[in-house]
Amino acid sequence: MNKIQHILDAFAVELKKKYGIATCQFKVDEENGTYFLTANVLLPKQKVELEKRIEASKLSVNAQIIVASELPTTDLGFAYVDHVPTNVYSRTFKKDNIRYLSTQINVKEDPVQLIWEGEEHFCVKLVDQTIGWVRKDELTRINGFPDWQPPEQKACNNKEFDAYLERWLGVPYIWGGTTMSGVDCAGLMQNIYRRCFNYLLPKHSMDQMKTGTMVTEPRKGDLAFFRSTNSDGKVIGHVGIVVDPSQKKILHASFSQKKVVINMFSEIVKPGYEFLGFYHYPVEIV
Hints:
Elements: H1 2-19, E1 24-31, E2 34-41, H2 44-57, E3 61-67, E4 78-81, E5 90-95, E6 98-102, E7 111-117, E8 121-125, E9 131-135, E10 139-142, E11 155-156, H3 158-168, E12 178-179, E13 182-183, H4 185-197, H5 205-210, E14 213-215, E15 223-229, E16 235-244, E17 249-254, E18 259-264, H6 265-268, E19 273-280, E20 284-285
Parallel strand pairs: 2-3, 11-20
Antiparallel strand pairs: 1-2, 4-7, 4-10, 5-6, 7-8, 8-9, 12-13, 14-19, 15-16, 15-19, 16-17, 17-18
GO molecular function, one term: cysteine-type peptidase activity
Organism: Candidatus Abawacabacteria bacterium RBG_16_42_10
């Protein structure tokens, strides 16, 4: 039992380092030299990785690995997150002795759907279909919640739009964040569009780009998309919102500046940083 348990423990530790909590659960029994494993993980890629490790161990394992994000809708109901769950923050960036934070689920204003129950956490789904984990003691269950429907699109008053964006200036950059406690680039755009226009964007920047219409000349409120490649070869997307088309000023949650700022377009586009285009959505500033 020690060998298989060592593999599972090491896998759980790696996930905990990444997400701040162990986003998996295991139950192992042994009979006549064969291990019977029931595992719950969050994402398909975690299932693939666990299967690879089990296969590499050469142990006789009969494994049933359940992916929480692929589970059908359940009757577990809905809940509100009581506060931004700081205990699921984890390390991400460390520079000049400053510690920056990330989180898997960072939301406290909208109800979440409970899709799977662990020992200490619920796997939850947000309105935008983001999947993540929240501790049970950070949730308030509610008796019911009607089926979510996209709200009617609307125009936003220019002064109200400017005032709302100004509130975000200086908010710290937190990967995965969606609140004024901390926000990332895509979370900021999602929040602005929902609060100002009642328009729901996807959670991630590259998905946001796919839902828009590319334009040559940007208007105020259009989104600007970029991408770069890190040292590991991973493509990283970035997005900001046009606040001054004539001067091409863009408000965005800046990773390098660690907060929400307004930059000139030319200050964002640097060597190794590719501009993908301006995109328009069915919203209006009046």
